[in-house]
Amino acid sequence: MSPSAQTRKFSLFALVGLLLILGLGQSIHRHLVYDVPWVPGTEKLIWSIEASVQFFARGEPVTVNLRRPSDQDGFSVLDENGASPGYGLSLIGLADQPTAQWTVREANGQQTLYYRAEVLQRDSGGFESEPPPTIRSTSWEEPYATVVEAVLDQAVSLSADPFSLTRQLVSQFRTNDRGQNEQMLLDVVGDENLTDLLADMLQSRNIPAATVYGLLLEDGRRRQQLKPLLRVWSDNKSKVFPLGLESGEENLPLLLWQPTQGYVLEVTGGSRSDLRFSMILSENTNYGQVAGSLGDGSDLLGFSIHSLPIAEQAMFKTILLLPIGALVVCILRILVGLRTSGTFMPVLIALAFIETSLMTGLVGFLLVVAVGLMIRSYMSHLNLLLVARISAVIITVIAIIAVFSVFSHRVGLTEGLKITFFPMIILSWTVERMSILWEEEGWREVAIQGSGSLLTAVAAYLAMTSLWVRHLSFNFIGLQFVVLALIMMLGSYTGYRLLELRRFKPFIDQGH
Amino acid sequence: MLISPRRLREAGVVGMNERNINLIAERNPRHLYPLVDDKLRTKLLAAKHGLATPKLLVALRQQHDLQNLSAHLEPHDGFAIKPSKGSGGKGILVIAARREEYFIKANGQELAIDEIRRHVSNILSGLFSLGGTPDAAIVEQLIVPDAAFRDLSVEGVPDIRVIVYRGFPLMAMMRLSTRESDGKANLHQGAIGLGLTISDGRPVNAIQHNVCVQEHPDSGADLMSVRIENWINLLEIAARSADVTGLGYLGADIVVDRHHGPLLLELNARPGLAIQLANKIGLAPRVRAIDDLSPRRFRESPEARVARAVSMFE
Predict the structure, then answer these.
(1) Which residues of A touch B16 (CB under 8 A)?
(2) Which CATH number covers residue B275?
(3) Which residues sit opposite B264 in a β-bridge?
(4) In angstroms, what separates the C-alpha of A390 from chain B's closest C-alpha?
(5) CB contacts, 8 Å: B188 with chain A
(6) Domain limit, last residue, from B105, B126, B141
(7) pLDDT digits (tens, 9 = 90+) for A271-330
(8) pTM here?
(9) What residue numbers bound the domain in which B195 lies?
(10) What residue spans of A109-161 are helical by DSSP H?
């Protein structure tokens, strides 16, 4: 080794050492001072809830107001966003109520708007409840006024405070042992308006009560509706009485979507509106808890992604995983010796896998590349110039993706729609490179590089979706320096690759 | 089944990572690459320094050069048309003979002048070049392989790859195309690598697909009986090409023509490592031996360096 190579090696090791000290130091400081745990907490549950608003627009200006959930006892809202092509969306407070407001100058026909919220389920306690609604007088015509009075008198005589009164009322209206008076009232207002009736009855006795709306959370449910609930206030406390729950529903977590009196959905300029919910229990972990305790850290060492707005945080969550993917590529290429088609193509494919889920992603990728290769092999007869050829392949790939999406939608495979998450330019280059490889080196090399790329992509996917890796990369920025140091160390590795131990096997019988 | 890294280290085998860092990055300054990645530049450079290369009949750089193509080709019976920046044998058209107005390819196919013109046009527009950049087309005199090599190579001319390290020939192998490799001399496509001693160019070992072979799979010719004329002369061409380009780790591809002797075909700034398998010797001990030479040895003439290498690597 020449002297210049030695100094180079020394300065590299010095730099690597510096990066390691910097990275580990920042991480340890963060752990000790801010109490950020090294391992992700597992008991934290995060729900991703999607509300879809559908209505029929009449070609007029449209304003849609949807009540959105706020922090409450047992839940905190971590992130919210909406998807609604063509609409302006603002998350505002209308009359002290958090609201998602969509507006558009003109809309026609069936419209679908989406609102998504990430909600952290946590231990209850210490949450101030909403102020009680103002008492309004309700009057009933005779003979119902007398009946209402009779029912209320009976309930009051059997109870001590507003909450026990409500419990008593609810039990009096229970299906099995309903009295004559109760049945008569229900016949008038209708079974579905029982909550409104009870709220009105309580209001008439100056007890603040309202129909509020809640969502029962159950993993993987779709097309759910809000449940009307009876909420009663007394002094500074309030209680929610779920009515008409089916068996098994009592134990589900209940998120109050509209915690006080008022509308849930208000559509101006449209008709036939409908509101449905779908939800999943996401695997993310204590991001919310950490976000809460780190968001206000302002000194330099407490430098934190958590001080950014939620939308940017979400973006960084992905960006900060890229170095991990790059590290996986370095390991597999430098230490193992896998050949891939395009150096970092596997990382981008792995990112797409994160969006699509692994199996869907693999199948989709293979389909697009296989069909792309077939079409490209025809194109190679045309002897097009490089730039035109790639452009043609890009259009082909888009066409393939469009055809697959439409087809899978037709046969009802919603998974198929996720194929659009693939980076199309990258896929086109993959098709182009594979095709050239096929012509020049034969199918064997295509198989080797193709499977090498997929293997790398899957490994990168597994690394990037690992809860622990996600936790560390997002919460300990310093570890990025450690990854950088590792990559630089790999970059100066002059030892053998794993696959070379097979390649140079003929040397085995050589005596030494 | 794997070989242990310790065993491989003992055998002195250089791996890809070590080659990339200690040989290529350390010895080959990046700005010298264009000298060898462009065959026309290499050829002109070689000619300037008196290195023997296949005779350049004509170089075509622009589409309007095509108008005079037939006039250029008229006097020649056999020639090869190559893209200047092609790699791996892409876009090479070999015309072995003429019959009336037709050109006969090595495999017997007849081509009209229009088809040749279109091929050259494709080369110029960059169809075969790296990255699709516009390219030049080289028309070279046809190489007539030495009669001794007739059964050794199918549809192609066998070439000899010499690894030159800091001006000293380090290791050599002959690459023989097979039917499987489709006339190409790339080992991973199924060509045979025949390891040759530096001292006298005698075969030591042959491999195809990393497995030892004794005979050519197509012709059955005995590989171990190959003898190469003018061996020292051939090594000197390789050693001088290092001086000409300034590259410290270089692969020189040389053909032996029946009439003109050893001719430099092309140079490679990133020569591969399969040559170790063909020779069943690792490169590392030889690299170390060269590095241990006293500095003045590197200033000696190519002839003296070849003589030293021949005595060192017996």
Answers:
(1) 337, 497, 500
(2) 3.30.470.20
(3) B254
(4) 11
(5) 441, 445
(6) B141
(7) 888 898 887 776 444 444 444 444 444 444 455 666 665 456 667 777 888 999 999 999
(8) 0.68
(9) 5-50+147-312
(10) 144-157
